[in-house]
Amino acid sequence: MKDAQIVEHGLHRGHTLKEARLQSAGLSISLLNFGAVTRDLRLLEENRSLILGFQDPADYLRNPGYLGVIAGRVAGRIKNARFTLGGQRFQLDPNEGDTLLHGGANGLCHVFWDLEVLSENTARLRYHSPEGEGGFPGAAEITLTVMLEAQAVVYDLTAEVTAPTPFSLAQHNYYNLMGGAQSIREHRLQVDATSYLGLDDANVPDGRLLALDGCHHDFRLGRSFAELDPQTKGSDVAVVFDECRDPEQPVASLIAPDGLQMRVISDQPCAQIYTASALPEQPGALPGQRIGSDMGVCIEPQGYANAVNLPQFPSMIATPERPYRQRLRLEFGRI
């Protein structure tokens, strides 16, 4: 494992902050044991970073934009931070007014995971979420396996639970395929979507599926963000994938102005597309980068947010008999 290593970055909150560095023929990746963060993903041939990140790993302990984290137990928002399951009401710990966002203040992006390197191109992170953590029923054993191939990275997420409980994780990288020095306005995004989730006044899905025609979230034709959204309104929207699609084929493609492409292959029913319109300016970015509004785009495959309160949406309930699983594959190349 000459090209893989674990580096320690001191003691924080009673835990050692650790970083795994992996490499394949074409890519390198850095993973932290805090929040299961992807700190850097880099194209080796050009030494080009493909995601936004902080230079100091300790900065991820204060990460209001959720850069690189695994969000959960439930990614996105849950209305009024509560739900009913099996006739019992569960009150969660709200962290955005009355709403639960990305699992709450004690979600998976705010805890230390166990980290081990399995080979020069593979690492595994594990976290035991005890029963009642964040208000959720059941305990969960969560595993993230990250594997590099020559020009691809795979995130394999699983959760085994002791009782029925909502589960919907999301990988929260901010992609900027030009290295992060300039905005993503000239990137082009194409998504095989059929509709998007309507929101209430608290930005929580309300059960409606809305048409993409004529709105600035219509990513179907692969236009640039500048062309699709000339007024820079920004997007923070869950787009719904075609139910009849082949899950082995790309569901989205992001293309940089110089032709570098990222293809997204996912088994999830939708994805949150966020163009970082509200991402605050933050110091300490990786060399040559700027962290702030419009500097990256999140493409977060996941289940339907707030589905636990909306029976018309696909279920997000994991059980001991039906563990949670998600597989995300990102492929890089030139068009």
In angstroms, what separates the terminal alpha carbons? 32 Å
Structural class, from secondary structure content? mainly beta
Order of helices and strands: EEEEEEEEEEEEEEEEEEEHEEEEEEE
Number of helices: 1
Which stretches are poorly predicted, pLDDT < 50 over at least 5 residues?
none
Question: Which bin fits the share of residues in helices?
Answer: under 10%
- Please give the radius of gyration in angstroms: 19 Å
Question: Topology of this structure?
Answer:
Blueprint: E1 5-12, E2 15-23, E3 27-32, E4 38-43, E5 48-49, E6 70-71, E7 77-78, E8 82-85, E9 88-91, E10 100-101, E11 114-119, E12 122-129, E13 140-148, E14 152-161, E15 165-166, E16 170-171, E17 188-191, E18 193-199, E19 205-210, H1 225-228, E20 236-241, E21 252-255, E22 260-266, E23 270-274, E24 298-302, E25 317-318, E26 324-334
Antiparallel strand pairs: 1-2, 2-3, 3-4, 4-5, 6-16, 7-10, 8-9, 11-12, 12-13, 13-14, 14-26, 15-25, 17-21, 18-19, 18-20, 20-23, 21-22, 22-26, 23-24
What features would you describe in this structure?
With 335 residues, the chain is mainly beta. The protein is built from 1 helix and 26 strands. The protein has one helix at 225-228, and strands spanning 5-12, 15-23, 27-32, 38-43, 48-49, 70-71, 77-78, 82-85, 88-91, 100-101, 114-119, 122-129, 140-148, 152-161, 165-166, 170-171, 188-191, 193-199, 205-210, 236-241, 252-255, 260-266, 270-274, 298-302, 317-318, 324-334. The strands form 7 sheets. An 8-stranded antiparallel beta sheet has the order 11-12-13-14-26-22-21-17, with no helix packed on it. Strands 1-2-3-4-5 form a 5-stranded antiparallel beta sheet, with no helix packed on it. The protein is globular and about 55 Å long. The model has no long low-confidence stretch (mean pLDDT 97).
